[in-house]
Batch of 2 targets.
Target 1
Amino acid sequence: MFYLLRLEIRRMLADKRFLILMLCLPIGMYLLFTNLFGNQPQSGPPAALELMISMAAMGSIGAAMMTTGPRIAQERGNGWLRQLKIMPIRPGTVIGAKLLSAMLSAIPAIALVDLTAVLDHGVRLSAGQWLGIGALLLLGTAPFAALGAVIGYLTDDASAFAVMYGLLIFLSAIGGLWMPVSALPSALRDIARVLPSNRLADLGWRIVEGQAPLAADGLVLAAWLAGFTGLAVLGYRRANVAR
Amino acid sequence: MTEIAVDFTGVTRTFGAVRAVDGLDLTIAAGQTVALLGPNGAGKSTTVSLLLGLLTPDAGRIAVLGRPPGQTVAAGQVGAMLQNGGLMPGVPVAGLIELTRRLYPNPRPLADLLADADLTGLARRRVDKLSGGQSQRLRFALAVAGDPDLLVLDEPTAAMDVASRRTFWANIRGYAEQGRTVLFATHYLEEADENADRVVVIAGGRVLTEGTPAEIKRAAGGSTVRFSAGGAGRAGLERLPGVTAVETRGPAVTLRTRDAEATVRALFAARDRVPDLEVSGVDLEDAFLALTR
């Protein structure tokens, strides 16, 4: 299990597409947004802080989905998952290593966006707040890792990346990661509140505002996790019947 | 180790309307090297998938080393090279072999595996940067990494050049000599002939015939003798020594014979000239035509 996890992580670090998109994109957007809107007066926490959470959330969502979706599609296509089935390893271990590596892959995205915020905007938080943000954003990527698995089983090697990327854009934009939910048209505001991306960021936003994390956020994320896991299991079964 | 390595009893597996495996009975004794020989679509890969627990039979019973296939695989007693099995991309060759070693209870040393598969110089190369033949050698290393009692190979030499093939089979024979059971599927009669103790010929999902390579070739009619002859020169050819069948197409006559030498000797004894004479061993296609007739 741990050796498989080690290989999965090694593979992530060798994947240039992953490094560029999932690390450079959130940092780039953070710098762009904070320098565009950073000086506008607004209620609530400063934009540098709020956007730090938004971009860290977007980066970790993308990293988690990227580590599962396109890879599962690729491994289904090239037969590696089939090869694993004739080795003495349980399917649960294979999936576990995949989800765990997906969640761990969110660490660099969260850490680098946070570091950029500290260096570029002098963001200051207590050690407890930093730890809380890190831990909650990390745990909160679980539904996205599962969503990636759904993509991996329902698409193929050619389309998985595009589908994943489209969903990332949708979840980020409508989930209020690019602009505050209050700036969205009213019809979209209700949708935003049920999206897992919004709830993930909300966990962090509440911490930087000095509030306790909202239980409802955790429950909504858990519900999405359960739903996506169920779909991933269905997809896994369907993929195995077709072979 | 059990006496019987593989035991199929009346195994059937259908895909829609196609009976890929149709009432297959197959017994392989431990320690044997057995070739599963058949044309494309004969049911070889389905048989291999059933044997490895990748597919479950619609009817019949399968025991591998005395247990259901899934259990034998989970216990690390089986290693396999699948025809459409893949490799984990983006990781180094040695890393992938090491991962496989760690899954089995009694793995072979990493250095030996690299050396046997001729991959020592490529140990740090990324798996997705290997050529077709190199990938196939890596698949072989993965298949034997756990020192399995039963080694299953489905069309193992498909992507290999001639030199790689030779080394590959030398490795397999070495492995079999350690008392392991080896089952390989192939559509090359030559590979079956040179490397198997026993050949099981399957077609249409059933066992057509089985025996030693020599027995199979005899059953298939041995060799063919071709020459040109007009109408009158064709009389009595079927009575020549060894001949099992006579075919004519235009001026060409093809004799199928169990004993090419005796047939050719008799041909020359009976006539002054034998134009366009050609003698060849049966290829698999001929063998199948002969066997299924």
Target 2
Amino acid sequence: MFRFDRDRLLVWWLRIASGVCAGIVLLIALFVVRESLPALREVGLGRFVTDASWHPTSDAGSGLYDLTPMLAGTLLATFGAVVLAAPLGIASAVFCQFYAPTWAAQGFRRVVSLLAGIPSVVYGFWGLVVLVPIVRMLAPPGPSLIAGILILTIMIVPTVALIADSSLGSVPESYLLGASALGMSRTHTVLGVALPAASSGLWTSILLGTGRAIGETMAILMVCGNVVALPDSIFDPVRTLTANIALEMAYAMGNHRSALFVTGLVLLGMIALLVAGAGRLTEERRRG
Amino acid sequence: MADIVFVSRRHSGQRIDRAVQVLVSLAALGICAFFFWIVSDLFAHGFGELSWSFVTELPRDAGRGGGIASILVSTVAILGVCLSVSLPLGTSAAVLLAELGAREDRFALLVRRCLDVLAGVPSIVFGLFGNAFFCVALGLGFSILSGGLTLACMVLPILIRSTEEGLRAVPNEYRMAAAALGMTRSRTIFRVLLPAAVPALVVGLVLGIGRAVAETAALIFTSGYVARMPTSFLDSGRALSLHIYDLSMNVPGGEAKAYASALVLLALLLVLGSAALGISDRWLQRRMIRI
């Protein structure tokens, strides 16, 4: 007779459910690759960087598929935001850990976690109605690379600040006591002991911030102007890879649609590199 | 760290100390200033638009007039689909990772690695995937179902991480006591471990809802734009965040309602966030008293 074994049933269910959860990643990769294959086959990878401009059509022969302006847009916006957000976030984490009285540190952490919870579409809306008019006054047209960089900075500062804060907090107290015993000043302790000891955590915070900046869509879409062109200055409008997908996906057909999936594939590749980098850092920390 | 006394050398050392202190305080102050700038601006422009009818009326004239009733219904429906799929799956995966997956177990390791990657996938790529898989390959079209399922994939890592941590925090005596009483493994999980981990589960749930409510990019081409009142899960429905985007980008003169919608969205998230905080705080307190 068949014996109904609940435990074994449960274990199988748990395995299946976990398999489904893990399988989603593979499914995502599979579908993005599958949908981008037609464009990769008919247009070819080379034309995504060598074509004269971005005028995709469903007919591969007459369309132009140059992704470099979008790639440049994403890289420039991300680079600018990280350059601003990394020092700002780490400095505020140092403030929290070493300079602030307890109430100020707690209040600041609360504000930062609230900031982290604001939806990107709200950031984008605020950027559109507040930031862009200010940029327009400085240098028209307004929607521009600099507006995107500023919005991204505000969005990734919480990520950097929270992780940097916790990694500075986990510096062994004996290091700090040692520094104090050697008569080091507070600044020297922070710069010479705490920051180097927490460096892998700080780099992780920057990498995660970078990942968030690369993947950000709505806010950047709303403030960057979305013109497909290499910007001459930070006041020129740009279009990022993410905005490119969001703008054109609604009406894209055939090879055009497929080209947008190639855009997504490029994004996934960039994120994979970052995740691998962050993973290596975590391993280093565990070993060190 | 108050008990550590730092020696400040006089003159130059002291001056540098002071300068650094001012610098890092300014960084923190600047971040706070931005936060208050954003929130106060939203309040100043959006609060006047808020009223009971804004929540109960249907949008008129592409959203320039009327309210957001149908949009709220769509949002809740998308959330409902998202949670009814992600909650059972996520809890099961968390149980496997925390209770059955030994640290060196290959399968558990693989699952964990995959979830880490999933957490890093940009939301727009979830949108692409949702469109290709749920809308086209499964034939669900632009619908609340497609949107909800796409969001379910997105919130899984959050749900699993929180529930797993909760399960790991259950004292080992519970497991031993259950084993000593001769309880089966499934009974131990359902009657002892999961009830003990409920607060963590709720925190994960609230965080997941927060992420799902805030999401826009993954919904543009999965659940669609239609602002009508949805009548089934296969109808297209516009989420609140997408409504804000549409009003501010595509509808001239939609700014006032966009402000009000943004305020409603923020209020929702604030309530959810404080609920999560309150639950986890109370949970910690309870644990501390008992031990």
